[in-house]
Amino acid sequence: MIAYDIIEAFFLATAISFVGSVQLGPVNFGTIQRALNKNKKSAILFGFGGSLPELLYCGLAFGGSNLLSRFEGIEVYLKYVTTGILFVFGMYLMLQKPSRGEMKNLSESKGKEVWLGMTFGLLNPQLFPYWLFIITLLRSHSLITNPSWFVQGAFVVGTAAGAFLLQYIVAVITSNKREFLYEKLTINYNKVLGGVILAVALITLVINL
Question: Rounded to the nearest 5°, which phi and psi values hold at 106?
Fold first, then answer.
């Protein structure tokens, strides 16, 4: 039955990660920005890199799921850090010079997209407490009871798969609608996107006050 447990853990983690990644965050905005400024491949590579930290944080969460009580209240501080990251990224887009079409020397930067996306993902401070909470919750409801490393490993891989699935969809939709977005936002789309990010950051800050 371990094969069934492995498959179940993988798809359960994929579904949870996909839904959890829908919330606006640095990786989502980075994928959108690259789909608009560069191309679909760059956005997908960025999104892939941004999904990899799920492996690290979920793996750490498995080892510390019994320590959830020690992290009580830390989510409040992490939300402020996330707000700060969104604010900085929004300001970066607001101050960036408008451009149209493909960026120059694009082939030289493609290899860096994965690393850049990974950096954005690592800077998401909510991943560890999020997976710590999810794993503890699932265990309390007897949804992850098999202690096998294969089962836990499948769950960890599933978290990255779910996050990447969302980023892939975002990259494809944004790339396919790029001309429409150009027509609607003209050369000021960076400022518009930056303004949206700043608005989200301010709303998040007000909610957490």
Answer: -60, -35
Alpha helix ranges (H) inside the chain = 2-20, 26-37, 40-51, 53-64, 74-95, 106-122, 127-140, 149-176, 178-185, 189-208
The predicted-structure confidence for 133-162, as pLDDT tens digits, reads as follows 788 778 777 777 777 888 889 999 999 999
More confident residue, 67 or 160: 160
List CB contacts of 107: < 8 A, sequence separation 6 or more. none
Query: pTM of the full predicted structure?
Result: 0.70
Token code pair at residue 135: 């794993």
> In angstroms, what CA-CA distances link 99 with 1, 33, 102, 112, 179?
55, 12, 8, 20, 13
Local structure of residue 98 (DSSP, 8 states): P
Token pair, residue 145, equals 């009871």
CB atoms near residue 1 (< 10 Å): 7
Residue in 191, 130, 164, 139 with CA at minimum distance from that of residue 43: 164
**What is the token pair recorded at 79?**
């939300």
Query: What tens digit of pLDDT does each residue of 110-123 get?
Result: 568 899 899 888 87
Residue 32 exposure: Cα atoms within 13 Å on the Cβ side: 18
Does position 69 have pLDDT exceeding 50, yes or no?
no
Tokens of residue 87, six digits = 């604010």
Contact 63, 128 (CB under 8 A): no
